[in-house]
Structures are given as C-alpha cells and as structure tokens.
Design a protein that fits this description.
Blueprint: E1 12-16, H1 24-38, E2 44-48, H2 56-69, E3 72-77, H3 79-95, E4 99-104, H4 109-116, H5 119-129, E5 134-137, H6 140-148, E6 154-156, E7 177-181, H7 190-202, E8 208-212, H8 220-229, E9 234-236, H9 245-249, E10 254-257, H10 268-276, E11 280-283, H11 288-291, E12 299-301, H12 306-318, H13 320-333, H14 339-352
Parallel strand pairs: 1-2, 1-3, 3-4, 4-5, 5-6, 7-8, 7-10, 8-9, 10-11, 11-12
Length: 357
C-alpha cells in the first residue's frame, strides 16, 4: 500500500453535501474529509453543495466554475446530485481533460437507473458514468446491479465511519434499554418498533425505548402518542451529534432498526454500533443480509413483521450469551468500514488511476 503522507503535487476538488444536516450523504462526506486530512492529503478543495449563505443558484454557479477549472474531481452525491452534475462533468470532459470518480451514496442507484429514467436517458447516464475513472459502490449488491446496468469500472468501497473508542458492556445500567437512532419516519420502521415495544410493555416487560433522530412531521403525532401512553418507558431524546453516536449506542442493551426504506444501503448507525459492539436487530432488507450473519453478528426479522420483532426483542432481553456473541461478531464485520481503511483503499484506487496530490 502506498504511503499517503506525501506532499501535494496536484489538486483534487471534492464535491458533495456535508453535515449538518446529519443524514447519510453529509455524514459520509464529513467522515471522508476527516480521513483524507488525517492521512495527510493536502491538495483537496472541499466544496459543499449545500448553499450555506446566499441563494442556491449562486452556490451552483461557483461549483460549475470550480469544476471547469479542476483537473481531478471526486463526486460523493445522492440521487439528484448525480443526475444533475455527472452529465455536466461529461460535457466538460469533452472540452477539457478531466479525471473523476464517484462515491455512490445509498444502496439503490442501480434500481434508480432502471426505474427513474427512460431508456434513452438511462443509456446517456450510463455513458456519463463510464467516462469516470471509477464508481465506488457501498455494497456488493449495488456493485453487481450497476455492472448489470452497463457500468464498466465499479469498485466496492465501503461506507466509512470513525471509531471513537467506546465499547458496549451489558451491565446493570444497560439491561432492558433499547435504542433507535435514525430518521424517525415510517419507512425506517419506527411505527413497527413503537407497536412492538407497546406490546412488550403490555406483557409486563421492563423495557425502555429511547428514540433519536430527526422526526418527519407526518410521524410526529404517532411518536408523541406513544411517548404519552408509555408511562415514561418510551422517550424521544432529540438528535445525536455525529461524533457522539458511538458513545450513545454503547450505553444500551441493543439497537433496533427495522427499516424498509427505499434506497437503503448500509445505514451508518449500524457500522457505529458494530464499532462499539452493540448487538443489532434489523430487517432482512436490501443489502443488509450481505453484511451480517443471522445469529452471529445480527438478528434479522422480516420487514413490517411486528410479531417477529417482539419475539426477537424478547430473545435479546433474556439471552445474555446471544447478546455477547452478536457483540463479538458485529465488531468483526465492521473492520473494513473503519475510516482509515476506506481512505487507504480510496487512495490506492486513485493512485492506480494515475491521480496526483
């Protein structure tokens, strides 16, 4: 592996949204920025596609000027950013020599290409993507899906997270405490989780559910109702600073994320739970079974199956040996997701593409 602390010998423009807000793309890009800077890479200009000051059109014009003047561009974008900026990059590339790579944010870009675009627009988008030096997919399922769409240069590069050092311990304070950290919306499974915890409480189980994350307005009444009716056993705890997620997770018995969210890849909170060694209970959905093994690094339930969710939570509440096995297993799973490993792999790929910095 090539050492990455050399002096800058070229320029790289990194284009994407940064946190806040603390959603998937912003957190990923902030982590990549920290990783590149921690590796000693000096020649990167970080362009935030979120207009922090002034109108959006002015920020977009600045971005286009930066793209025109840059030889090497890293894109790390969600669906709409990809559709907008990559064709512009391809057009610029016909006029000036440019190199580019794309970190794909999310796990369903291949499905979007198939479902969102007409045949001729899909062919054009695939042609634009094939002008890049590389496309970095977060999962094997996404890699295979993009290759099936006609992309020729797809690499598996995991979604990075920083290990802050906190570790899970099933002590007395953690017993019976369940945590949900994600966007609080129906498709992330919050409705099903609230119903399942309600059933546990009716059955006399001594449990506590703490919910963290931004609440969608349509889902706020249901959350507030569950909080009121739980007698203090369900709480909404607000947002978690990105650097504090692992610390917060480590204090709980287990994490539950029964997601069926369209476009779900590998939620970063699962990687952070793995780094802390927190047992996870998740839905068998999208690419999640690709990463975790049933009974060894996670417990799985079918999406939208509240009865199965209740049963699985009861298992974790009473089976300490299972929890400890899952803790050990999930820590092994997330080793390749460590920020340092992902950045080192990224730099090796850029070096193979003959980039300079």
């Amino acid at each position: 592996m090539r050492k990455s602390s050399r002096k800058a010998s070229g320029d790289i423009l990194f284009v994407g949204p940064f946190a806040p807000p603390y959603n998937g793309d912003g957190v990923k890009n902030s982590c990549l920025k920290a990783g590149f800077e921690g590796a000693g890479i000096k020649g990167v200009e970080w362009f935030d596609t979120i207009a922090r000051q002034g109108p959006r059109w002015r920020n977009n014009l600045r971005l286009l000027a930066k793209m025109w003047g840059s030889y090497q561009i890293i894109f790390s974008l969600n669906k709409y950013g990809r559709y907008y900026l990559l064709p512009i990059f391809a057009l610029m590339q016909t006029l000036r020599t440019k190199k580019g790579v794309l970190y794909v944010v999310g796990g369903s870009f291949h499905q979007q290409l198939q479902n969102d675009l007409s045949p001729w627009r899909r062919r054009w988008m695939v042609a634009c993507l094939n002008r890049l030096d590389g496309v970095f997919a977060e999962s094997r399922a996404l890699q295979q899906g993009l290759e099936a769409c006609g992309l020729r240069k797809v690499e598996l590069v995991f979604n990075p997270r920083r290990d802050s050092g906190q570790r899970w311990d099933l002590n007395e304070a953690a017993q019976g405490r369940i945590v949900f950290i994600s966007r609080v919306t129906r498709t992330k499974g919050i409705h099903d989780l609230l119903e399942a915890v309600g059933r546990l409480l009716l059955a006399g189980r001594c449990v506590q559910l703490d919910v963290y994350g931004p609440v969608d307005p349509m889902d706020e009444p249901l959350l507030q109702k569950a909080v009121r009716e739980s007698g203090g056993r369900i709480k909404y705890c607000g947002l978690v600073e990105p650097g504090k997620v692992q610390e917060v997770l480590a204090a709980y018995h287990f994490l539950v994320l029964p997601t069926f969210h369209p476009g779900e890849g590998l939620p970063g909170v699962l990687v952070e739970a793995g780094m802390a060694g927190v047992p996870i209970l998740i839905s068998r959905f999208s690419a999640l079974p690709e990463y975790f093994e049933e009974g060894e690094s996670a417990l799985f339930i079918a999406p939208r199956d509240v009865a199965a969710l209740v049963t699985a939570m009861e298992r974790l509440l009473v089976d300490e040996a299972l929890c400890r096995r899952l803790s050990t297993g999930v820590q092994k799973v997330v080793q390749p997701f460590r920020m340092e490993a992902v950045v080192a792999q990224s730099l090796d790929l850029l070096h193979a593409y003959k980039w300079t910095w």
